[in-house]
Amino acid sequence: MKMVIKAALCATVLATVSAPVMAEEYPFAEQIEGRQGYFQMLKFNIGVLGAMAKGQRDYDADIAQTLANNLKNASLMNNQLMWPKGSDMDAEGLSGKTKAKAAIWQEGSEIGQKNKEFAAAAETMAANAGQGLDALRKAIGPLGKSCKGCHEEYRAK
Ligand code: HEC
């Protein structure tokens, strides 16, 4: 009985706390936050590799390999559910919430191809990052370009 009362109390507290947030909620909030979080995670991993490549951070083969593996594994995730049609920056209520261009969902979209290019560059990075600083340096350019290649077409400035 005690447990039930506690649970009910918790639910009430939660409802009160989350009420103001709910009022501001916009459609596809969770999907948009999910994909943006995914990209922040990519940025962290490539950021450390980039710092090593530039000599701003000591090269460490184990760390480099770990981060490169993370990028490779991330590139293989199926994130389809984070990209519902209608969750673009021009959709009602989404201005300022997302930078995803509507072109992603339009006829002739090459977003899948862009993601394949990222996956290929991440795979090359994973094969090289632990093999020495020179090998990492050779792989970082194409990997960074694969991010940029998609952003130029499908992410607003
Ligand atoms: C296949 C396309 C594609 C690839 C590949 C890609 N991005 Fe993005 N990225 C996007 C899109 C589209 C957005 C905008 C998402 C949104 O605002 O809903 C974005 C947003 C971001 C953001 C901002 C996230 C936020 O908090 O709003 C960062 C940082 C980012 N990308 C980093 C990267 C890095 C680093 C790579 C490569 C390792 C990469 N992206 C590869 C399409 C891509």
Q: What count of domains describes the coordinates?
A: 1
State the CATH architecture. Answer: Up-down Bundle
**Would you identify the regions where 5 or more consecutive residues have pLDDT less than 50?**
none
* Distinct small molecules bound, one entry per kind: heme C
Put simply, the count of helices is 5
Through-space gap between termini = 56 Å
Structural class: mainly alpha
The amount of beta strand, in percent, is: under 5%
CATH homologous superfamily caption? Cytochrome c/b562
Q: Tell me the radius of gyration.
A: 20 Å
Query: How much helix is in the residues?
Result: 55-70%
Large-scale geometry = elongated
Largest sheet: none
- CATH class label: Mainly Alpha
Give a count of the beta strands, DSSP E runs of length 2 or more: 0
Helix/strand order: HHHHH
CATH fold naming: Four Helix Bundle (Hemerythrin (Met), subunit A)
- Mean model confidence by pLDDT: 90
Reconstruct the topology from this structure.
Elements: H1 2-24, H2 29-53, H3 61-75, H4 111-128, H5 133-154
The structure holds heme C (HEC).
Can you offer a commentary on this structure?
This protein has one domain: Cytochrome c/b562 (Four Helix Bundle (Hemerythrin (Met), subunit A)). Helices cover 66% and strands 0% of the residues. Helix 2 packs antiparallel against helix 3 (61-75), helix 3 packs antiparallel against helix 4 and helix 4 (111-128) packs antiparallel against helix 5. It is built from five helices and no strands. The protein is mostly helical and 157 residues long. The structure holds heme C. Heme C binds at residues 32, 35-36, 39-40, 42-43, 46, 98-100, 111, 114-115, 118, 146-147, 150-151, 154-155.
